[in-house]
Amino acid sequence: MELYAIRIFVLQWDEACRFYGETLGLKERFRNDEIGWAEFDLDGPCIGLERVDPDDSEGNALVGRFVGLSLRVEDLAKSYRDLVAQGVRFTAPPETQPWGGSLAHFEDPDGNVLTLLG
Question: Which CATH architecture has domain 5-117?
């Protein structure tokens, strides 16, 4: 068994695809606008964006929440500065954690919260 994808549910389809591809710089390995599914490579597993119908109340409950996905970067301070300069919303600047690492939480266009880990 191996991890294939971490699914993130979005309403703003085009904006989300631009965010994960252009803003975060992840390579798009698949996208189908008709079915509302896109994959962004994480060197093995991927982030799978799944479009939610705005009229689907059950699906809407999956949008705009803490995803629990941590993306490790080589230089957290630089990545933070670069993303802030591109308009990415962070909940706070990077903070050193009691376990010794540093992290910062940020939001995608739909308010899904992800973590940068340094």
Answer: Roll (3.10)
Residue 116's pLDDT band (boundaries 50, 70, 90)? very high
First to last CA, the chain: 28
* Alpha-carbon gap, residue 101 to 61, rounded angstroms: 31
C-alpha distance from residue 57 to each of 35, 52, 53, 95, 106 (Å): 18, 9, 9, 35, 24
Q: Which of 102, 103, 110, 117 is nearest to 8 (CA)?
A: 110
Q: Are 99 and 84 in contact (CB under 8 A)?
A: no
pTM of the model: 0.94
DSSP character for 63?
Answer: S
